[in-house]
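Figure caption, in words: inputs first, then the predicted bound structure.
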Amino acid sequence: MLLQLAWRNIWRNPRRTILILAAVTIAVWSMVFSSALMRGIADQMVRNGIATLTGHIQIHQQGFRDDPSAAMHMKNPTELKQTLQDHLPPGALFSARVRTNAVASNARHSGGVTLVGIDPDREKKLSFVSSSIISGNYLDAEDPYGIIIGTSLMNSLKTRVGNKLVVMAQDTRQKMSSRAFRITGEYRAELEATEKEFVFITLPAAQNLLKMDEALSEICIVLPDREKVRETAAALARILPKDHEILAWQEMLPLVTATLRLYESIIYLWYLVAFTAMAFGLVNTFLMAVLERIREFGLLRALGMKSRWIIQGVMTESFFLLVIGIALGNALGAISVIGLSHTGIDLSVFAGGTQYWGLPKIIYPVLLASDAILVNGIVLVLGLLVSGYPALKASHFTPVEAMAHT
Amino acid sequence: MCIVECENVRKIYRKGTQEVVALDGVSLKIKKGEFLALAGPSGSGKTTLFNVLGGLDRVDEGCVILDGDELNQLTDSRLAELRLRKIGIIFQSFNLIPVLSALENVEFVMLLQGIPPAERNRKAKELLGDVGLGGLYARRPAELSGGQQQRVAVARALAGNPAIVLADEPTANLDSQTGARLLALMKEMNQTRKVTFIFSTHDRMVMEYASRLVHIKDGRIRDE
Amino acid sequence: MSLYSYMAWRNIWRNPRRSLLTMGAIAFATVILIFMLSLQFGNYSTIIDSVVKMRTGHLQVQATGYQENRDIHLAVADPSQVAATLDRAPEVSGFTFRAHAFALVSSDNRSYGTVVTGISDRELTTSSLARTISEGRFLTEDEGAQALVGNILAKNLRVKPGDEVALLGQGLDGSVAATIVTVRGILSSGQDQFDRVSFYIPLPYFQELFGMGEAVHEIVVIAERLEDVAGLKQRLEEEVAGDTGRALRVLDWKELSPGLLEAITLDLMTGFLFYIVLIVVVAFSISNTFIMAIFERKKELGLMLALGSRPARLTGILFLEYGMLTTLGLAAGILIGCLVTLYFGAYGIQIPGMAEMARHYGVPERVFPQLSFLSVGIGSGLVVGISLCTSLIPVWKVRRLRPVPAMAEG
Ligand SMILES: Nc1ncnc2c1ncn2[C@@H]1O[C@H](COP(=O)(O)OP(=O)(O)OP(=O)(O)O)[C@@H](O)[C@H]1O
Ligand SMILES: [Mg+2]
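Bound structure (adenosine-5'-triphosphate present):
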């Protein structure tokens, strides 16, 4: 009965109801959609970061991060690999690498790079390199002279696939060691900075060049589930010798982690702003509706209606309105997210801009259940809270006051 | 000399398939300076005729000539102009703009006519004095009684120096004594200012004041 | 006050709560827009400033092709000629010469490949480099074999002021360029990507080491004001680039840091998308008030028509009413917005996650919104625009009002 009454009251003035519904709907939609976009960007940044050699977890010799040189290596790879084999959850992948700073040069040009020695077959499964080759071939495990470089570096060295490239780096005995390689492949990365920085050779070639024997600089692990990273990293830290440093991606990609936090703050700030903008309209509309019916409320009071019931009645109306607005907003949000889930939003027109901010070129929105719940909760709870004002107002009209009102 | 002439006026309201013939061939001539009462039962077409005469509504057939202008030929904006210059209107209720004081309501028409402020003010005060509201310039409509509001409406109707004042049941919301006083006031204005007045009523006592009485029934003029 | 504005004014206060809420919504949107725009513009000018002051300058004269290829051979052979032109230009606040070459930098036990830059004493008048010294002191041209090293590179090389570092590169003629320099100072710009690679030596020493003679790679120019840049660029192009038969080229800061402008555009556009959504929500929030101003008063408006007001007159009164509501809300919004912006402009804001980002992009860890005519203007403009749009529907409706049916209502 009360519900029915509230429902009819809402539609007394359909135009007004529709206008305020539009405000609620757009506000909710914008909250849902903007969080989906931000989460989409953040998610992609994490994925790109992880695929660009970072992986989920890395193991190094203690101190490697501050001094990424050949001297900082792990001497007992077989033992290490066995431990990982035994303790990582099923489905986890890992790959061994050698990594150091080097100088790449040809007859006329040279540049500073990071030299990475990889196990081509294992690397294929956990990082971007093999899938990003745009000309030439991926590294052949049997080819000790093959090297893969990024497009950007290729351009600045003015070279191409098939040409010779000399790599010079400091070996474990602090001596400069160099060797000529032949460029077998060119890769293209999401960010130009990546293309400029990394060159890849096979693991044995790197160990040979740097006189490391069987030693490794890093082991990169990718887990089947990103949520388990911290847990697994902690477990590994307990098992592995103390001179090994175990890092989760959150620590290795501080900029991405910071971006995630910044985006989270922006999302919540936006919730607040969009809600406030909508709340003004909501309170105003209910105030109008209530003032218009001032005689009616007076009459109800004269008939002996308790003010609590009047408050309840007005709040029920507001509840209906909010629920409809929220439902429409969510539906619109879901439609826009689903609609964009295949094509994404292509930002390549702003390629320079996306490069600068380290953003993905195409954004695919990702709607998180937690965000959706939060949005709906905020709008419903705070929405009811602010409509308490007109409801209280309605309950305070005395019959005499109400009858005098025209 | 006629100020208003209507010939065979028909006005039909259509609602869906239903047709209501509100005016069914009304012909009427009103001379300058008349104080004419239009009498008829509820639903007979009085208000409709007033709207048509006042240029508020258009006829379906026939023609209305007001002070030489054939109303059907005028555009909406010319009609507004005509109402402003030649017609004073008094409604049954709701005559005044709520946010304006009594004085400002009277001034409003003169403002539309473009009369300078000082003259506006002087004339409005004079008119309010004439209708016996000398001390109540600053009151808002909500602070005046029904009779006082109708007097302000009379003053306002005269403010624009109209050729004719149309009053549709001006006394309907008033008790008979107040109504009679309002009519006496209108009659006085009619005589001192030589303004033509047409008013409608179904109150016998009020009809007494009229110098000419026209009966209307079912949209037709019955007798005089 | 004319009777019309008086009527409009009275109409607003017929229902004070409603009007206050409506003005509140308008003021809220204004505050948010002014504040956010000030924040964005403030950030941009900090970023541009840091890029211009730390690295590129407003303008550079380079050999054609150097920007794209960074080839040591593409040098400005006779910088003194350009310098003479620059000395004469009143818009130039300072200029300096730089030369770059790739080299292997080695300490006792570590080696890194990096770009070595030769700087002149003029750097002090041009860039903020000297202000980033965190240890030791700045270098001077006449002191030969000495270097300034970025703090991360210094850490990687394990050197501190007073230590020696070996340089190994390739001279202009292809010969080996090798020397040993003493670290004179450590630079901490706060930008990791910068501090990881910075390595400076005196320009004359650089020219000798790499066999460059008098040649340099960049002539970095700072203009008196950012607005002067375009005009100055054109003049330099005519005088310098023209004289040398297009062997030299003038680049402005936008060309020197490609991506920066696009990055700003992208950020600005993203911001505007949010602002548009915000004002649409606000528009719907206030539309009820605007529309009510008509529907509640149909009778009254009908009466005014009956008395001979032209529809345009009613439109005028309604516009006045909306205009007053908007103006009052806007005025409150501008006032509060400016105060809030000024407050945070003085104390800065810390947003979680911002500090790390700031280190990367080279802006202070706190963001300081910068109140400007532009942010206030655009913010208020958007609000006025949306309020105008919102008022169009009711105003259009009032034009179709006919006196008789309008008065019959309610
Ligand atoms: N807008 C309308 N739509 C349809 N029919 C109408 C409309 N206005 C008036 N009518 C009809 O036209 C006829 C004449 O109405 P009108 O208002 O002129 O009567 P009236 O003489 O003024 O009556 P009252 O004394 O009650 O005011 C009536 O039958 C009425 O029902
Ligand atoms: Mg009638």
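The two ends of chain C are 31 Å apart (CA to CA).
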